[in-house]
Amino acid sequence: MNQLAQRIIDNPIDCYPSATVACFDPTCGELPRRRLDEDRLVQYLEKLAAAGAEAVLLAASTGHGHLRTVDELARWFEVAAQADAPGLIRMALLRPEDGVEANERLVALLSEKDYPVAFIRPGTDLSPQASDEEIALNMRPLVEMIAAAEMAAGVYSIPDVSGVRLTASATEKLLDMPGGEAVVAAKITEADYVSSTREYLLSPRLSRLKIVQGWDPHLAQVFKEGPSFDVDNKQRVGITSGPMSFAVFQYLHMLDAAAMHDWDELDQAQLAVTALFQAMQDDPAKFADLQRAKYIMGLGMPLTGSVDDSQIERVLTALEDLPRPEDKVRLARSLDLMGDGPFNQRLAALYQ
């Protein structure tokens, strides 16, 4: 068994990563469908690791994982394993709607490549009115497969993609099904904090799980509340962040502030990230289109679409207008992580 997977299963609160980058999908080629830029993916993961990132989640919505074919996912997971980043924990998100045969193939690949954790969200083949029982049964086969492969499992609520929420009560039902002992974390990407993340934290049945915040504007709040929901007053929560893909240095600073209980600094740093997040958000009730930041970083255009000059300018102007110079420096460095993107000179002028 993967030794890290076993440690995480035995003690999720202490051993599951505190911060994971829901990472971008470097692309190349032309429409109607671009392809994975394999060399760029390896470079990107190595640069994230060198910057201090602890873990990455592949095929999350940040990287348009929900748009990939099974073959494309398999290749993505395989290439990511080639990155020379031994300290970087690699995780992957799987989809119930792909079916048993396809997911058996993907789980076997992840196990072979020593991925310690695989995540599952509710399938898009569920009815919008699906009950908690129906949602748990939909996810059960993947939980069983992951457990049988001696990996840890994470569950993921992202109704913007799946169409239904994964409630705390549905997750409780999953724990009682075969393979439920392998579930170590719940990632919550919902706009309403009280009805989503806090419900997970309040559930006694989920008390051993790491609760992983995915809707970034809630990060400061969840870090403040996390220890109060652990019997030993340990930090109960972590983050899996799409914006950390383009803001790695800012997020590492925020994690340091949280560890020191410097809540004022965490709040101020959060405001800077939120300004860029909102600059990529066309609907305040929907998650931002982070593919715009991907293009700024030099990681290519979206898989099936493009970003335009006005969308890019809105993000760069928000960066340049940040009131605190230190936030501007960390975020410009992060957006210029690759060092050779199309806006390298403009970004470098903000931090050199």
Kindly report how far apart the N and C termini lie.
Answer: 46 Å
How many beta-strand runs? Answer: 10
Strand order in the largest sheet:
1-4-5-6-7-8-9-10
Examine the coordinates and then state which fold CATH places here, giving the name of the CATH topology: TIM Barrel
Q: List SSEs in N-to-C order.
A: HHEEEHEHEHEHEHHEHEHEHHHHHH
Number of helices: 16
Number of spatially distinct domains: 1
Structural class: alpha/beta
Q: Into which percent range does the helicity of residues fall?
A: 40-55%
CATH-level-2 architecture: Alpha-Beta Barrel
Give the SSE map.
Blueprint: H1 3-10, H2 12-15, E1 19-22, E2 27-28, E3 35-36, H3 38-51, E4 55-58, H4 70-80, E5 89-94, H5 100-112, E6 117-120, H6 132-148, E7 152-157, H7 159-162, H8 168-175, E8 183-188, H9 197-202, E9 210-213, H10 219-225, E10 237-241, H11 248-259, H12 263-279, H13 291-296, H14 309-320, H15 325-335, H16 344-351
Parallel strand pairs: 1-4, 1-10, 4-5, 5-6, 6-7, 7-8, 8-9, 9-10
Antiparallel strand pairs: 2-3
Could you characterize the architecture of this molecule?
The protein is of the alpha/beta class and 352 residues long. It has one domain: Aldolase class I (TIM Barrel, Alpha-Beta Barrel). It contains 16 helices and ten strands. The chain has helices spanning 3-10, 12-15, 38-51, 70-80, 100-112, 132-148, 159-162, 168-175, 197-202, 219-225, 248-259, 263-279, 291-296, 309-320, 325-335, 344-351; strands spanning 19-22, 27-28, 35-36, 55-58, 89-94, 117-120, 152-157, 183-188, 210-213, 237-241. It has an eight-stranded parallel β-barrel with strand order 1-4-5-6-7-8-9-10, surrounded by five helices. A two-stranded antiparallel ribbon has the order 2-3. Helix 9 (197-202) links the parallel strand 8 (183-188) and strand 9 (210-213). Helix 4 runs parallel beside helix 5 (100-112) and helix 15 runs antiparallel to helix 16 (344-351). The longest helix has 17 residues, at 132-148. The chain is globular, with a radius of gyration of 19 Å. The termini are far apart. 49% of the residues are buried.
